[in-house]
Amino acid sequence: METITKNNIFNSQKLRQDFPILSKKANGKPLVYLDSGATAQKPKQVIDAISNYYQSQNANIHRGVHQLSQEITIAYENARATIQKHLNAAVSHEIIFTSGTTESINLVANSFGKKYINASDEIIISEMEHHSNIVPWQVLCEEKGAVLKVIPINENGELRIDEYKKLLCSKTRIVAVTHVSNTLGTINPVKEIIALAHEKSIPVLIDGAQAVPHMKVDIQALDADFYCFSGHKVFGPTGVGILYGKEKWLNKIPPYKVGGGIIKTVTFEKTEYADLPLKFEAGTPHIGGGIGLAAAIDYVNEIGLENIGAYEHELLEYATLKLLAIEGLRIIGTAKEKASVISFVIEEVHPLDVGTILDKQGIAVRTGHHCTQPLMEHFGLPGTIRVSLVFYNTKEEIDVLVNGIQKAIKMLR
């Protein structure tokens, strides 16, 4: 795949040809898709991998002696190995297939919580968490009589590490924070967060849903105990995701769901569970999803995450300058370290109204609270307009966005 021209310029226009949907029109206008933070579009390579599975490989895994079952079992386990290598996990059985980030967090909250959380224990999350990394811990605290502690943020949308240090104590049982904020784009210092927790032997879960599409994640370098992400945000299919867990923790905690596929032996008196990773993969998995996710990982690695990161940072800087030139527009989240996500509000106009008018011009953005209502409360806002940029976006699309916003302002004021 030729992604860099001889002038060393990132060839986004060439890459766009890999994404069939980007040639679509929306409301009669060329589609300008700026909502990849919600779900990224899929390249032909991923679509073809999924189609090929259903056309020529379809069978169940780990269970059949026939050729098709054996072939797809090998392909599925190769997909697991692809993700292990991508994350630099120590062994492939530390990679658990789930339905996405939400299920991954629920798995840890339920399985870890069942064994290790008791009354008066404390769980630490942050003020910028997605609801998926708030509600499971909140429910667990209600069930167990535990206490949920929250790391505050400053006005730039950065975690207050000084306050985090104060929260860590002998009652803390687990820390769960996002790597990259889906609303603010803030890149959190997760390596430091993990190291501080480990000084007190406290395990850490990292929500990597918004990080994995934009940057290289080295699990062993971070030393995370649990790390999770969703396939559909990293150009793969919906309904599949990953939970990485250190082997020592995955061996200690009980299964989240039980049934076929996770069993070593069953009698009416006792059940013995399968070894990792099958212990956490009850039922027939989303086999096509796993194959498609591995194809997506191969695709971004062929482009190169360093190339992707550099180009997306260029887009972020360009979009930030262009947007700030609009009178009355204010960016929410100005952290020093940011991924290519921009949330903003405009004086005297509601985000939903702006989003609706942009849609009529073929421009897809996100409006609302972005599943981060506590974060919106911090800033005293009902919601924002969010633009999330990836490598198939262009500066020309940002110019179209700016013109569309200016048109919306004229109509609404």
CATH superfamily of the largest domain: Type I PLP-dependent aspartate aminotransferase-like (Major domain)
Instruction: Summarize the amount of helix as a percent range.
Output: 25-40%
Whole-number average pLDDT?
96
Please state the overall shape, judged from the principal axes of the Cα atoms.
globular
Q: Distance between termini?
A: 47 Å
CATH-defined topology of the largest domain: Aspartate Aminotransferase, domain 2
Number of helices: 14
Mind summarizing the main beta sheet?
A: 7 strands, mixed
In short:
Helices cover 40% and strands 16% of the residues.
Explain this structure to me?
- With 413 residues, the chain is α/β, with parallel strands linked by helices.
- It has 2 domains: 12-43 and 304-412, Aspartate Aminotransferase, domain 1 (Alpha-Beta Complex), CATH 3.90.1150.10; 48-301, Type I PLP-dependent aspartate aminotransferase-like (Major domain) (Aspartate Aminotransferase, domain 2).
- It has 14 helices and 17 strands.
- The strands form 5 sheets. The chain has a 7-stranded mixed sheet, sandwiched between helices. A 4-stranded antiparallel sheet has the order 13-14-17-16, with helices on one face. The chain has a two-stranded antiparallel sheet with strand order 1-2.
- It is globular and about 70 Å long.
- 45% of the residues are buried.
- Mean pLDDT is 96; it is low at 1-8.
